[in-house]
Amino acid sequence: MSLLLDTVSYNYPGSTHGLHEVSLDVRTGELVAVIGPSGSGKSTLLKLVSGLETGHTGRIALDGEDMSRTPVHRRHIGMVFQSYALFPHLSVLDNVAYGLKLRKVATAERRQRAQALL
Question: Are 78 and 99 in contact (CB under 8 A)?
Fold first, then answer.
């Protein structure tokens, strides 16, 4: 899956701060790390890509398809938050596989796919 961010900007509600013209081109198979200090917009950027946050300007495309108006449940993007409290009763493997469980992927397959990602 490829990801294109083309001059994506976002202001936090009631503020003039946020992300300013972020551009990034990630090709299929590439591994990218988003790093920066606390408050720099890393999580906001990931929420925009996944659709958990909306209201940005610029273009976000997955495999060439503009996702600006695509709802979160149709993007097929998973996001595991840094906080362990998301599902504290689940193992790391089960937290990673949770999205596949929601899609009703068989237990053996989702465990295998989550293990490969880890």
Answer: yes
